[in-house]
Amino acid sequence: MKLFESVSLLDEASWERLATRMAEEQPRPLPLISSLAYLRHRAGANNVLIEHRYVDRDHRAAFTYFYARQFCQIPQLCERYHFFKSSKPWRPTLGASPPRSPEEEYLGFIIRRPCPNSPIGRSVFPISASIIPGAYAHTRFEIPSHVNETELKALGVPFCQQDSVVMTCAETSIWTAARIMTEHFDHRPVLPSQIASLDTIGFSRHGRVLPSGGLTADQMAHALTTLGFGPVYYVKDSAKDELSRWDALDVAATYLTSSIPVILGIPRHAVTACGVMQRRDRRSIRPSPVLPSHNWVEGLLIQDDARGPFRLMPLDIGACRSFQAAGLHDLLMSTDLHQRTRTGGRWVITRDVDTVLVPLPEKVFLTARDVHKLALEFLRPGGVLHGFKPLILQIANSGNNGARQLYEALSFPKHGGLVYSVRLRRSIDVRSDFHGANEQVRTILRDTPLSRFVWVVEFTTYDNFTHPKKEARELLGELYFDATSHAYSGVSSLIFAHFVGTVYNRPDLLVGSSVTRGPYPILDDRPLLREGIPLWTDKEDPS
Measured between alpha carbons, how far is 383 from 420 in angstroms, rounded to an integer? Predict the structure, then answer.
């Protein structure tokens, strides 16, 4: 048998033959149907390179853990299917160059496991706003695959189908989240055999670990802790006092825009959220004194091991209809809100979610909810920032237009108020973003030690945030909080603050030439255009 085989996918019959080859038994698994439909109709795949006798590390671990113990064993080797946009086959000859042009783009791969009912193993599917309009998957990353000596790279998010033996939906959602955390936060890789064991789940309500009978939310939280994460666990009934209303989208959005995946639990099922869906009309949200940017999110991107990659979970039935009108009906569970009462464990909208599990990186103790509370302490009417209004007015009167915009925004309802965004960032990335900032601001930041991860609150006016052109969405201020502090630290967790014309810092932390106590008035400071703020100046924003 040849190691590689190229197959053209230019018509319906060729896709049907491919589906039959990947799953001979009928009915075909829904994740396979959804995956091939996504690659064909959304990603635009026209060619597939089949790699035979592929050794997959994840399947090998599952084989050693369980399948090797069976009398009728399944094979150890898999097949890997590489998908390309080009209608011409890419040949894996020695010294071959990877596809360069967008028309020849390498889209990703599916590893076909030798499991009849669950053929889709570790896979990667592409995601961008050009594939799903309005989609922002900040958890995506560049995933390499090596064919002979050539490295092919796909920009996407991992996906895997549950096999109902070693991994049910619970273990699969943990596996997906762990893969993302490995890339974005340097967590050690997690294999299927490491997720469900007596060491990780602590106890089994089924009396045995294998074959897996699924995990409760408590067991999933314990498994994440044992695997080295610092999970934050939100439960619908117990969150009512903390949250004004329960909504998984409100809980999850900040983590997702910080490249942190979120595990969502619904009755008898678990899925992994990997991105958000932005509202198309930025002016659809009315102004208020202070608004979080996640108010402009109307749905979540879901990796559902039982239904397929990049399913849409709308905020409500209105968002559901909006997605349908935008031609995204193939990614929806249903457009019928009343179906929720008839589908048991199936989800339709974000309010169907009962639990939220967030696998925070190690030594990130301050949660997103804590940071939102701190942001409001600073930005709300009567908050800390309003105490600086005389200074802001003084700088505005010197001719600083950015300070003038900020001063007017603090005078709601006469003006449109403020919009703020929260995200977790590496301190090294924070410093690199100041290369175009005012020199004096850069010097003070240089002399300010930062923890490895910091929570960043970036804010601007409502008018700037909702401007149709992202080049006009200038940043007017930012707050940096120590991620290793805790909920009871209060405003003392603030390390550094900068808003147009003013810098405020912690004298007890400063080194170098900036030890003088702030705040520092900086008359020549100007608004900053910062690329890549989620839902704000993201590179994929259609404007």
Answer: 14
**Distances from the Cα of 315 to the Cαs of 101, 165, 283, 508, in angstroms?**
37, 33, 18, 44
pTM (two decimals) = 0.93
Check whether residue 394 and residue 265 sit in a common domain: no
Q: Return the C-alpha torsion angle 344, 348, 350, 351, nearest 10.
A: -50
- Domain residue limits at 434: 368-521
Contacts of 474 (CB under 8 A, 6+ apart): 402, 460, 464, 527, 528, 529
151, 217, 359 from 212: Cα distances, Å: 36, 15, 22
Residue pair 21/116 in contact by the 8 Å Cβ criterion: no
Torsion-angle region of residue 96: left (phi > 0), alpha (psi -120 to 50) or beta? beta
Task: Read off the pLDDT of residues 57-76 as tens digits, 9 standing for 90 and up.
Answer: 999 988 888 877 888 778 99
Q: Does 47 or 521 have the greater pLDDT score?
A: 47
Burial of 69 (0-12, 13-18, 19+ CB in 10 A): exposed
User: Are residues 197 and 174 part of one domain?
Assistant: yes
Q: Please check whether residues 143 and 40 belong to one and the same domain.
A: yes
Tell me how far apart the alpha carbons of residues 481 and 144 are, in angstroms, rounded to a whole number. Answer: 34
- Number of domains making up the chain: 2
Cβ partners under 8 Å of residue 536, min gap 6: 293, 421, 458, 460, 465, 470, 473
**Tens of pLDDT along 314-332?**
998 889 999 999 999 999 9
29 preceded by a cis bond (ω within 30 of 0): no
| SS3 state of residue 163 | coil
Alpha carbons 85 and 184: distance in angstroms, whole number: 27
